[in-house]
Amino acid sequence: QVQLKESGGGLVLTGGSLRLSCAASGNIFSIITMGWYRQAPGKQREPVATITSGGSTDYADSVKGRFTISRGNAKSTVYLQMNSLKPEDTAVYYCNADTIEGLSPGRYWGQGTQVTVSS
User: Fold this and answer.
1) In sequence order, what are the beta bridge partners of 51?
2) pLDDT at position 51, please?
3) Quick one: which of 114, 96, 112 has its CA closest to 35?
4) Given CA atoms 19, 22, 64, 29 in this order, what sign does their dihedral have?
5) Which one of 22, 38, 45, 67 has the fewest CB atoms closer than 10 angstroms to its CB?
6) What per-residue confidence (pLDDT) applies to 73?
């Protein structure tokens, strides 16, 4: 089992920046990928950025060049630096961890943090 706790959301003006943090606890050695997803009102949850245990990253086209995902030294914390924010970035942002525990894959979610970008 893995527990995820996000922090860092809030209200920001267009063009501003926010940094989200996600701390993982529990069976952190089972984590193979961590990432951020978001869900806007009336829309499906979508991937924003992911980072593997080897450090490879992937981004949604809509955030490339503006958002950066990174890990802390302990590799159980992941950050999302969001720059040049736009109103369309407004959503609840969820931290995600994909795991392998034995032969069983797992997927865990944080509780979500609201990001609101005002024009």
Assistant:
1) 34, 57
2) 96
3) 96
4) positive
5) 45
6) 79
Q: Read off the pLDDT of residues 65-118 as tens digits, 9 standing for 90 and up.
A: 999 999 987 779 999 999 999 999 999 999 999 999 889 999 999 999 999 999
Q: How many residues appear in the chain?
A: 119
Token digits for 60? 């949604």
Q: What are phi and psi of 29, to 5 degrees?
A: -75, -10
User: Could you give the CA distance from residue 90 to residue 11 in angstroms, rounded to a whole number?
Assistant: 9
Strands (E), the chain: 2-7, 10-13, 18-26, 31-39, 46-52, 57-59, 67-71, 77-82, 91-101, 104-109, 113-118
Determine the residue type at 62.
S
Q: Give the C-alpha distances (Å, rounded to integers) separating 16 from 4, 58, 63, 112, 115.
A: 26, 22, 14, 20, 12
At 71, list the tokens. Answer: 């890990």
The percentage of the chain sitting over the pLDDT mark of 90, rounded to a whole number, equals 91
